[in-house]
């Protein structure tokens, strides 16, 4: 049987991925101005597909678009981070609980694979580190087999990455990082064992002591 063809990436898709990576990696920090003509030349495309990519990023809340040629990376806001944290405190434990009830053999294999080499994020994480961290949580979300919940949590994760990086500007120390590593391990074990209450409990603690919670305190101060 012939495998389905992989959809070709458009120039707009390429621009979207590149600009999004620059924002989430901190290369384009909050509040920075993006000159579209300059960026288009750097990427090697015209401003039309770049503009399309920026509209997608605007819809995700990552950039603001003016009437002219410049775009601006959205500033961090204590209120937005608070809202993200409140939603994740409810939805992440639900996803973990459902994952423990519904995980398949493939889900378990992906959770285990994503846990390999996963360490609490250092003070200046590179983009690959952010992606690895996301892969682990995405594996848990997908094991819930609730498509609306997965879609919602994926969207929240997109917005939260910049607040994680902001929180990491202050070193949380080796003990705090070791605690996060232990929570990752315990959460995976609870889900694999089918312990829904235990998985929800670990996830709740994981969110309450997360980088997002630290970012909220910093932004308010």
Structural class: mainly alpha
Terminal Cα span: 60 Å
Shape: globular
User: What's the alpha carbon Rg, rounded to whole Å?
Assistant: 19 Å
- On the 0-100 scale, what is the average pLDDT? 89
Helix content: 55-70%
Total of helices: 10
Q: What's the main sheet like?
A: 3 strands, antiparallel
How many strands in all?
3
- Please mark out the parts with pLDDT under 50 across 5 or more consecutive residues, or reply none: 1-6
Helix and strand succession?
A: HEHHEEHHHHHHH
Arrangement of strands in the largest sheet: 1-3-2
Task: Kindly estimate the percentage of residues that lie in beta strands according to DSSP.
Answer: under 5%
Pfam families: FCD (PF07729), GntR (PF00392)
Keywords: DNA-binding, Transcription, Transcription regulation
Protein name: GntR family transcriptional regulator
Domain HTH gntR-type: 9-76
